[in-house]
Amino acid sequence: MQLEQSFTLPFARAVVWPAFADEPMLVACMPGAALQGAPRPAEQGADIDLLFTVKLGPITGAFLGSGAVRRDDAAWCGTFSGSGADRKSGSRAKGEASFALIELNAASTRVDVKVDYSLTGPLAQFSRGAIVKELAAALTCDFAANLRERIEASPLMSAAAATEPVPLAPTKARTEAHVEAAPLDAGRLFWRILWSRISGWFGRAHP
Question: Average pLDDT of 55-70?
Answer without folding.
Answer: 85
